[in-house]
């Protein structure tokens, strides 16, 4: 089977595409996967590092701040669709799979026009613009949240599958050893690039946590803010505190989440999927700087279900985070309740659902490539 996967923009769109590719390659001995991304996008490095080949198109997202950019974006998109059409004809895929964002639009649009089986995965609770524009033309829209059905246009063919993540989540047997005297672990991070406001709030939280005995706190600052955060800790007399650790990058996330009693993070769909698979109590701080404010919508779904606490970034400076953390760390039953409810959002069989649907979609349109 020849599979064309298209993704880009953020890690939240790239990671599920890689997870789908890995799943297909593991289950189909003759599977060949080719990725399509954007020129200069982070997907080039991530896909290549994962061992896959990638081609790139020159395409840009729609700017909400500068309406004059709409015409330039439209010209680039038209050219990208023509280039993608040539690529599809040359590669002759059995199926084309996208994972949302503007980066997937040209290739999925080209594939649908050529009669190739097409599917897109929407990881968020509210479908993005590219998915909404494409949904009516595609053979399938896989959804990470059931509530996302409400945002799809008439004629879409949705299937709720969950969000594909690494198989290690929820399977870690040996937790991280904590420093002597510590019995609880708080894990926090703001994404690979970090988040300055969340970093500042966590640094203040670390000082407040000294009032709670036995707490160890590990925070991922992101590379660009690591030096500043270290300097702030030093200014506050917390440098070298064995109960506190900063890191520019967090590796082995399955083990870290399995070890944590409480996680503080953004509300990206992949982070939520990882929290659900690990079954961890969480405080979600949605980023206000994402298209369509989809992180707030993701977090609101979990908060309404009693599966996580949500604190908007604008409230971080008024002590809301410190209060919530102190409350949860001293209330085991409440933490366990959040962990239990978020676990209901886990999708352990997401890979099987997508795999079986891929086979069905390919069979349904076999030989229709033109």
Report on the structure:
- The protein has 370 residues and is α/β, with parallel strands linked by helices.
- The chain has 2 domains: 179 residues, Glycogen Phosphorylase B (Rossmann fold); 160 residues, 3-Layer(aba) Sandwich (Rossmann fold).
- 41% of the residues lie in helices and 16% in strands.
- It contains 13 helices and 13 strands.
- The chain has a 7-stranded parallel β-sheet with strand order 3-2-1-4-5-6-7, with helices on both faces.
- The model has no long low-confidence stretch (mean pLDDT 91).
Structural class: alpha/beta
What is the count of DSSP helices, taking H or I runs of 4+ residues? 13
Largest sheet features? 7 strands, parallel
The geometry reads as elongated
Number of domains: 2
Low-pLDDT windows of residues:
none
Number of strands: 13
Q: CATH homologous superfamily name of the largest domain?
A: Glycogen Phosphorylase B
What string, H for helix and E for strand, traces the elements in order?
EHEHEHEHEHEEEHEHEHEHEHEHHH
| Range of strand content | 15-25%
What is the straight-line distance between the termini? 17 Å
Q: At the first level of CATH, what is the class of the largest domain?
A: Alpha Beta
SSE diagram, text form:
Elements lengths: L1 E5 L4 H17 L4 E7 L4 H7 L3 E5 L11 H23 L3 E4 L6 H10 L3 E5 L6 H6 L5 E4 L14 E3 L23 E6 L6 H13 L6 E6 L5 H10 L8 E4 L5 H7 L2 E4 L3 H10 L3 E3 L9 H11 L4 E2 L9 H10 L2 H12 L6 H15 L6
Parallel strand pairs: 1-2, 1-4, 2-3, 4-5, 5-6, 6-7, 8-9, 8-11, 9-10, 11-12, 12-13
Helix pairs in contact: 3-4
